[in-house]
Amino acid sequence: MPTDFLDLLHASLPPGAVSTTEADRRAHACDNSRLNALPDAVVFPTEHAQVEALVRACRAHRVPLTARGGGTSSTGASVPMAGGVVANFMRMDRILRIDPDNRLAVVEPGVTNEALQQALAPHGFFWAPDPGSAPWCTVGGNLACNASGPHAVKYGSTRDNVLGLRAVAGNGEGFRCGTQTTKSAIGYDLTRLLVGSEGTLALITEATLKLTPKPLAVRTLRATYRDTAAAVRAVARIMAQPATPCALEFMDALALKLAREHQPEAGVPAAEALLMIELDGAPDALDGAVAAVESAARVEGLVQLEVARDEAQTRALWAARKALSFAQRAATQHKINEDVVVPVSRLPELVDGVRQLAARHAVPIVSFGHAGNGNLHVNLLPRDVDEIERAHAALPELFALVIALDGTISGEHGIGVVKREFMPLALPATTLDLMRGIKAAFDPDGILNPGKLLP
Amino acid sequence: MPTDFLDLLHASLPPGAVSTTEADRRAHACDNSRLNALPDAVVFPTEHAQVEALVRACRAHRVPLTARGGGTSSTGASVPMAGGVVANFMRMDRILRIDPDNRLAVVEPGVTNEALQQALAPHGFFWAPDPGSAPWCTVGGNLACNASGPHAVKYGSTRDNVLGLRAVAGNGEGFRCGTQTTKSAIGYDLTRLLVGSEGTLALITEATLKLTPKPLAVRTLRATYRDTAAAVRAVARIMAQPATPCALEFMDALALKLAREHQPEAGVPAAEALLMIELDGAPDALDGAVAAVESAARVEGLVQLEVARDEAQTRALWAARKALSFAQRAATQHKINEDVVVPVSRLPELVDGVRQLAARHAVPIVSFGHAGNGNLHVNLLPRDVDEIERAHAALPELFALVIALDGTISGEHGIGVVKREFMPLALPATTLDLMRGIKAAFDPDGILNPGKLLP
C-alpha cells in the first residue's frame, strides 16, 4: 500500500478513522464464511462526506475497497479478497428518523437489524427483513445482500422494504435515489438495483426503509406428514388461498432426526416431514385464518396437526426448529450452508434430489427452511476430510438440480465469493454482460469489492 | 428511411409484420397525451426472435425504435418523437401459463391488463396493478411505466408484482432476468430496473408475474371532513394501524363540487374533503378491520362516516368518485393530468399549495386520488387558450412544491416526454448521470425510445 495513499487517507479522514494495526486488519479479514484475506487498512467512517473522500482516494490510487457491516455474510461478500481497504460502517449506526405517519424510518447503514426493530417496537412497527443473524447483522449488510428470513413469505425481502438510498458510487460521486413515498415512477430504479449488489456498485450511507405495522396477534401450527410430497402439497395449498401465513417453515426427516437426537427433551416428532406455520393479524380474524390454513394443510398424508393454545405450547412447537441449529453445530464444524430456491411446487423434487445427492456422495445433508418461498437451506454436514471433499464435489450437482427445477442458486444469502463461479449456471451470458455494463457505469475502475458476485 | 433498412426488415420478419401504410403510421403517431409524431414504419412482432431481429436491424441502421402496447400513456412515452419504427406488441398477447401453486403467471407483453385479470379470476387470483385504463392498456405497458392504481396501497405497484422478464436490450441481445421464485439474491436486479424504464433500455417479450389470491370479501366506507387537514390526519391514522385498506382515495372540495354539479342524482356530498375506504379479507375478519379503520377515521373534523351494508349501498358510495371522471371530461377538453406524490403526512400542505396555485394562476385545479400512497392526481382544467397558457406556467411551481414537500413528480404515470425536463428537479445530477450510464450499457447507440425519460 503506497505511503502517499495512506497520507491521503489520513489527511481526508478525521483522527481515529484510519487504522493499519495488525489487530484491526486481522479483525476485518474474515466473515461467517471460511474465507480469509487481510486488508491493508481499515477505515471507520462516521458520515457520508468521509465515505466520498474514501472512495475518491481509493479510486485515485486504484485501491480495492470492501464495505463491511456486522461481518455475518456466509458467502465471503465482506472479505477483502484483493486486500486494500475495508470500510467498517458500524460507527454510522444512528437511527435518524422514525416516521410512523409515513410508515418509514431513515437510518445509517451500521445500525443492527435488532437495534432497529427495538427502536421501532414502541411505535407499533417493524422492518420486515428478519435474518437469523439479526442481533449482529446491520441494515447496510441486509441491503447489500438482499437479506430476508422466515417472515419474507408474507412481508417480502429487503428489496421489497426499502424506499430510497443515499450512497457513494465507485466513481466517487455521492447520490440519492428512490423517494420518501411508497409509490414513484421516475426513471430507473437505482434503489432496488443497489439492494443485493453486495457493495460492488456503491457504498450505502443512508437508507429510507419501508415499515410494516406490527400485527396484533400471532398463532402457531405444527403439522407432520407421511412424506415430503404430502408436506409440499400442503405448502402449495396453503399458498394458494388468501390467508397467507407470516411463516411457513419446513424440516426434512434428517433435520428432525438430528434435532431429536441432540435434544431428546424438546419433543421433536419422529416424522418424514414437518411444517411450522405461523399466522398473524387482528385477534378476531385469526380463528378464521387458522381454520382456512388448517383445512389447506389437511392433505392426504397428514400425520398430525397441532395448534398452539398458549405461549407455552407455541414455544414447545418451535422447539424442534430451534434445536436444529444447535444440532447441526454439534454434528460438525464443517457445515456448508446453502440456500437454494425453487418454485414451491418443485420442492418435492428438490428434497428427493438432495436425498439422492447425499446417498451418491455419501455425505449427510439436511434440508429445511422457508418452504412458503420455496427457499430451502440445504446444509451439507461433512465430518472429516474425505466427507468435506465429497461435499464440495456434490455442490455443482446441487446447483444444477436447482436450475433444472426452474429455481436459482440463492434465495437470501447472496453470491459473494463462494457462489460466484456458479453464476453462469443461474444466468445467461447476455444477462451477465449487462450486469458487467452496469458495474462499469457505477465503478469504472473496478475498485469496489473486486472478486465478488460477477464471474 | 433508407430502402436497404426496409429491405432488411422485410427479410427478417414474416409477411404482414411490417407496415409502412399511411393508415398504420397515423394510428401509431399518438398516445393518450396530446403529442403526435409520425413513425416511418410499424412492426407487429409475434415472437421473441422477431424482436431480436428488429432491434438488430434498427441498431445496424441507427433507426429509432419505440415500443407500444395499448397506447394509453398520458406522458407521450409511446409516441415516436424521433420517427423510425414503432413496435406494436398487441399481437404478442398470449397468456403462456397460469400457475396457482406457485402464485405466478407467464404472459406475453401484449395481453391487456383486463384480459389477464379475467383469465386469472377462475383460479382465485388477480394481478395487483389496476390502472383505470385496464381494459385497453397492456401488461407490457404496465411494466414499462410501473403502472398501478387504487389497490397499490395494499398490493403494491407493477414493480412489486413481477418476478422475472425476458427481453431484448438495445444492443440487440436477448436475455432473461429474475426468477420463477418469490425470493432470490443473485446479483443486480435487472427485472425491477426494466420496470419503469419506459422502453429505453430493452423491449420486454415475456413476463413472469407475481399473483395475489383474491380476497373473499370487500367492505366500503365513505367519510367526509370539515377540511383537508382533518381528512389527511385520518389517512395517516388509518395507515399507521395494521388493518391496511385495499383502497384509500381522496377527493378535494372542487372535485366534489364538479362531480355534484355534473351528476346531481349521484348523491355526492357537499364537503370540503372526502375519503373512500375499501377493506378486503376473509368475511369473518372484516368486522374487526372495519371497526379499526372506522376508529382511525374518526378524527376531530369528521363530518359523516357511512359504511355500506350491501352492494347497492357500495355502488352509491362510489358514485361520487365515478362521477368525477365524466365531470372533468365535461368541464374541459384540455385537462392536464398530473400524478404527483408526497409523504402521506404532507398531503395537507400539498392540497393547500395546489389551492394557492390555482388562485395565483387563475386556473381550476382538482386534487383527488390515492391518498394512502400520498399519490394525488392534480388535474389542471383550463377551458380556453389563456387558461391553457396559465396552466402550463403553473406546472413548474407544482413540481417545485412537491419536491419541497419531500415528494416526487410521478407516482404511476411515469416521465415520458411531458415530465422529462422536470427530472433534474426530482433527482440530483449525479443520479441522472448513473442512469445515463445504465442506458449506455443496455443501448449503446441510443436507438430505444430516444427523447424520453432522461433529460
From TrEMBL, chains A, B:
| InterPro entries (UniProt xref) | FAD-bd_oxidored_4_C (IPR004113), FAD-bd_PCMH (IPR016166), FAD-bd_PCMH-like_sf (IPR036318), FAD-bd_PCMH_sub1 (IPR016167), FAD-bd_PCMH_sub2 (IPR016169), FAD-linked_Oxase-like_C (IPR016164), FAD-linked_OxidoTrans_Type4 (IPR051914), Oxid_FAD_bind_N (IPR006094)
Q: Required co-factor? A: FAD
Keywords assigned: FAD, Flavoprotein, Oxidoreductase
Q: Which domain of life is it from?
A: Bacteria
Q: Where is the FAD-binding PCMH-type domain?
A: 35-214
PANTHER family per UniProt: GLYCOLATE OXIDASE SUBUNIT GLCD
Name of the protein this chain belongs to: FAD-binding oxidoreductase
